[in-house]
């Protein structure tokens, strides 16, 4: 799940902060649960795993439990000998920890960044990176944020508040790109609502030639790159980006699951299941076209 909270290093600092203001005044919608596979009966005594899930977080979480994290969580639940029960919300996943996990409507959130101090986290189950996306026939093919190719790039599709947007500010491309960036969400104001550029929109803009470049976390767009009728090039961004003051802007991230701080037993059980489910998780990531990195790379 993406776009979760304003302290998450990768996940869209500015946009999440605006969304949080809206969340304070919004009515929290009740969660609803369902199980994967056949319906449960009153005679079913199998333990369940209640999984926080959003209907509006494609490609990670979506109705039918066909999202990347939905599939990974199903594999992990099965490795635990539990039945996966997805507790759904129609709100963006940035609110999952606060509005679902903390309120005890579900017990585990997938797709958090390693080091998220709001929760107890599992060991990482994969690592990936931010990437540049261009058309294969594109004239400008940057390999890092200092590449001279940026001189020939004007329109850049990127998520609000992301490390990609932050780096556009650092290389002097933010202001010139702002009007185009706002057009990607129909010039909607973030006032009193959460506004974000959909991942598939980033890819369609590049494929159509409307954007010269897309910047995104690879797992957010890999599915759409794979499905694109136009051949696209995906370049892993080196993890050496910095702000003007020298502070590092991470481009590589490890994914973990999170449970409530007092649930060390579930944390340990999930760690064991993640080890057991490694082959299934690897197959899911491969099928989704996600580029993974070696641990600590």
Automatic annotation (TrEMBL):
Keywords: Signal
Entry protein name: MoxJ protein
Domain of life: Bacteria
NCBIfam families: ABC_MoxJ
Pfam families: SBP_bac_3
Signal sequence extent: 1-25
GO biological process, one term: methanol catabolic process
Domain spans labelled Solute-binding protein family 3/N-terminal: 48-287
Originating species: Granulibacter bethesdensis (strain ATCC BAA-1260 / CGDNIH1)
Keyword Lipid biosynthesis: no
GO cellular component, one term: periplasmic space
InterPro entries membership: Methanol_oxidation_MoxJ, Solute-binding_3/MltF_N
